[in-house]
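Notebook p. 47: complex prediction with calcium ion.
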Amino acid sequence: MAVHHRLCETVPDYLHSRYAMERRTRDLVATGCMMREKRLLFRIQVVVHVLYHHSNEQINAAQVRSQIQVLNRDFRLKNGNRRSIPRPWRGLAADAGLEFELASVDPAGQPTKGITYHKTDRQSFGTGDSIKNPESGGVAPWDTRHYLNIWVAPLTGGLLGYAQFPGGPEATDGVVISHTAFGLRGTTVAPFHRGRTATHEIGHYLNLYHLWGDMLDCGGTDHCCDTPTQRTPNYGKPSFPNISCDNGPHGDMFMNYMDYSDDEVMALFTEAQAARIVATMTGPRASLDPAPAPLP
Ligand code: ARG
Ligand code: ZN
Ligand code: CA
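Predicted complex, structure tokens below:
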């Protein structure tokens, strides 16, 4: 949200473009873009930029690939922990219909493994987007219309990751993830060692909001009618039901990817969240996959 507010204050068209997107998203969701027979499978080309100061931060390709595998499970409802979703919400768990693959062709048309490595003078990065700018020790994105850019590096102050919503500047579009929370094994540190930070941040990149709507005292909304209104973020491993904002008997959906619970707790996007994702993939981010296949 710090990035969102900075863009509101500094990029003239940002707010207008966010409002236009929100209006279209609401229309689509209201007219049933999620009808099962119309579901689509979108393929997203990913490039991962690894920035390291110390050599131990130079994560290997296996760790990068493990993150892609987590994304391919979470966004297709193939995650191993989906059976931990409490019974009342099992029917809401959605296959968002996204497939991620490391880019095999770079912007110049050359073969690539979809991973770039850069040694940097910076010890760590914050939410100020210096990681995306070569003049401040960062790396510029590949064409953000065609690739999902993921920057991986040490981040400051316990930050696990951050994202830019659709509608922001191309030069800073994408998501940033700490090397301690990216993929499986390697440099990951529990309880953020199951790759769910990238799932969460890509949720924002595809226009999802936090479940508590980033407001205090139950006044916020994530614009999804099937996620209960909740008072605050949940941390750690809450037990079900965890009630706030008169949302009983089932309480907060703390196992949703857009809450702040531990990685092993997170287990679903809902149908309404998937509808917002589809609206984004057919709207502001359609250039990532202009010709989606029908969902088999
Ligand atoms: N932007 C959030 C943070 O840095 C991401 C939280 C992700 N949560 C998780 N369990 N992986 O705190
Ligand atoms: Zn978030
Ligand atoms: Ca909601």
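Notes: The pocket of zinc ion (ligand 2) is lined by residues 200, 204, 210 (CB under 6 Å). The chain has a mean pLDDT of 95.
Next step: compare against the earlier run before touching the bench.
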